[in-house]
C-alpha cells in the first residue's frame, strides 16, 4: 500500500469537463478502490514503533520543553492522539487510497475546529490549525477527523455505539455537503462560509444553545488586544512588558532575552515584508515592544512559539503569536513535492487555500538560524469547543459541523464532483470510515500505553508540574 500513493494520478479540477462527467469519473474510481475497503485497519509488519516516531519528531525542539509535551500527551489517549499526527500519517499511507488529492489540513482532529472572527468581523466556524497542511489523499483528513471523535467519545465515557455513530456523522455530513458544493460554481464555493450563530441555532439542546449564544455575544464584543493587554502586561518604567507565567509564558534569561529581542526585531521586519502593501502600511504604525516564549497546544509543544507585543505611538496594543514552522508530517508519505522551501509560507498558503477567511495579519518569516515561522493574531474572538460539557447529542451536532467545515475546505482545492461521484449516494463510505475509526481508536490506545511504558522506562521525560 505504501507504493500505491506513488502510483496514483492526481485528479485536478478540469473546467473543460462537465460536472456530470467528473461525477462519473469519481464513480469509476470507486471500482478501483471500493468504498468498503476504507474500513480496513490492522497493524502491519515492520510498523514503526510509535515511541520512536515521537522521539524523531522531537529532534530540533526546545529540549527543556519536551517534558511538558509528553506530560500533556500522557493525560489520556485523547491528548495522546492530538500529539500523534506523525504516527497516524505513517499509518495512513498503508490504508486504501482513491488517488484523489487536494490540500489537506494534515492534523484534522476535532479540537482543531472552532469559531473566530473574519477581517470583516463576522463570526464563522472553520478549521483553525494548519501546521501540517500539505497536498495529499482527501481520505486522510476525513479518517483522522472521524477517528478523533471515537477517541474523544471514549474519553467522555460514551458507549461504543455512540462513539461509532459520532464518526458516522462526521462522514455523512461531509458527504452531504460535498454533494451540495458539487452543484455550485468555483466562485460560489470560494465565497461560502459557515456562520457560527446560524450553526449553533441548528443544535437541538436548548441549554447548550443558550451557553454558546452567550459565548458568541461575548466574542463579538471582545476587543481582544485591549483586554489581553490589561491581563497579560505590566508597566516597566515607560515600557509595557508581557507578564511571565512560567513554565507556559516566560522571558529567557537576561542576556539571552536581550539577544532574542534583538533577533526578534530582524524576524519581525522580515514578517512585515511577507505581507501585502496595505497590511505593511497598517503595521508601520506599530513598533515591536516585547517578546516572550509561550507554550501552546499539544503537538506544538517544544517548537519555538511565543507572543510579541506591538504598540502604537498613542499606546494601542496588538498581540501577535509566532509559531515555528517545521516540515509537514505528511511530506514523507506523499508523491507531491512541496512547492515552498519556506515552511512558514507553506502553512500560510495552505491556510489561505482551505479557510473561508484567514487572519488579517497572517504571514511568514524566518531567523538567521534557518528556522521558519508563521505569525497571526494571538486571539481574535475565538470560540473553542468545550468537550467537557457535551452530551452525545451535542457531540453529534459538533461532528456534523466539523464534517461540513472539512467538506467546504476540501471543495476549494479539490473537485467536489469527483469526490461526490466517488462517495456516491449510499451510506457505504460513512459506514466504512466509522468502522475504521473504531479500529484506529483501539490502535491509538495501544500506542498510548506504549508511550506510558516508555515514560516509566525513562525514554521520554515528563514535567513534575505544569
From TrEMBL:
Native source species: Flavobacterium endoglycinae
Name used for this protein in its record: DUF2252 domain-containing protein
Alphabetical list of InterPro entries matching this protein: DUF2252 (IPR018721)
PANTHER family, per database record: DUF2252 DOMAIN-CONTAINING PROTEIN
